[in-house]
Amino acid sequence: MESNFVDYVKIYCRSGKGGRGSMHLHRAKYQPNGGPDGGDGGRGGHIFLRANHNYWTLLHLRYERHAFAGHGGNGGKSLLHGKDGEDLYIDVPCGTVAYDAETGKYICDVTEDGQTVMLLKGGRGGKGNWHFRSATNQAPRYAQPGEPMQELMVILELKLLADVGLVGQPNAGKSTLLSALSSARPKIAGYPFTTLEPSLGIVPYREGKSFVMADIPGIIEGAAEGRGLGLRFLRHIERNSLLLFMVPAETDDIRAEYEGLLHELEQFNPALLQKHRILAITKSDLLDDELQELLRPTLPDDLPVLYISAVSGSGLQELKDTLWRELNSESNKLQAISEGGSLIHRDREAAQLQHDFTDWQADWEEDDKNNEADDIFEYDLEDLED
């Protein structure tokens, strides 16, 4: 069964072409030499990307693979201006990033509800022959054609907006923790890769406060090179303010597993290492106090380390206190300001983008063939008739 969580789509966008200017020469009774009065053509429609908080995935665009703006109308006689082409707005969830599918170059992103960014500009309308009259050319029989439309293949990627991102290998207890701290009900089972898509949960805190936690599929060694599911979903933690690393207490070498997860994040995006981090030792109900004290010297000493158990509930309140304190620390706020969104302003590899959407090529070619006749500029002589 296909999932309703769609965070990756490809759309062929085409703005409108500008309308041509009119070449009409005025003719009226008692005015045999009325001169040129051709109006300008209308501009082509623009294409905008607009953030809409009513959407949470890109499912509504999964089968809307073409976005065409309206063409501008042609100019008319008596200085009539052509109608402007209709603009097209592509509504996407907050946190969506746009890339050029051909080159992998970053285009823009929208993060706030109502934020609008122009993807493609419509062609300008051509000037009518009225603009070209002069003392030496009182009856110009030419006008400007409208500017052609712009075309672009766009990749839209959704990167979830969350405060805390959960990072860990499969079966580290991420989904269990999310269900224990929030009302989210992700799938929980005793086999690897139970989580096949990201999950969001709102974690309540004291005095009516709350923060958002995101769970992504488990990360295994080589995830940055495409192993497992990590490569596809690692981008969702790029926007998180804080990363919570989770390692089960039954792991043979907790420090080695933590450093392995850190290495995968570095391979995917080195800037992720600049984020604040917390390490949680899950399933701590398997350890008594003495074993916990024996483990502490072997754990990383450059970040807060907590023992938690989502099943028994031990350490969860301390975890929420630590998460809230780190989220609202001055250093974390200053880091968010200094980053200025640079974590998501990275170009993608064009070869990888092409590989992800090879099955779409036939649809593009068929659509181009169907619209080929509509893209031809033609002039007629009707405007020159009396």
Would you mind describing this structure in some detail?
The protein has 386 residues and is α/β, with parallel strands linked by helices. The model is unreliable at 337-344 and 372-386 (pLDDT under 50). The chain folds into 2 domains: 8-158 and 356-384, GTP1/OBG domain (Spo0b-associated Gtp-binding Protein, Chain: A); 164-344, P-loop containing nucleotide triphosphate hydrolases (Rossmann fold). The strands form 3 sheets. The protein has a 6-stranded mixed sheet with strand order 10-11-9-12-13-14, with helices on both faces. It has a 5-stranded mixed sheet with strand order 3-1-8-5-6, with no helix packed on it. The radius of gyration is 29 Å and the shape is rod-shaped. A hairpin with a 5-residue loop joins strand 10 and strand 11 (210-215). It has helices at residues 174-181, 230-233, 254-268, 289-295, 316-327, 330-339, 350-356, 361-370; strands spanning 8-14, 47-51, 66-68, 88-92, 96-100, 106-110, 116-120, 151-158, 164-168, 199-204, 210-215, 242-248, 276-282, 305-307.
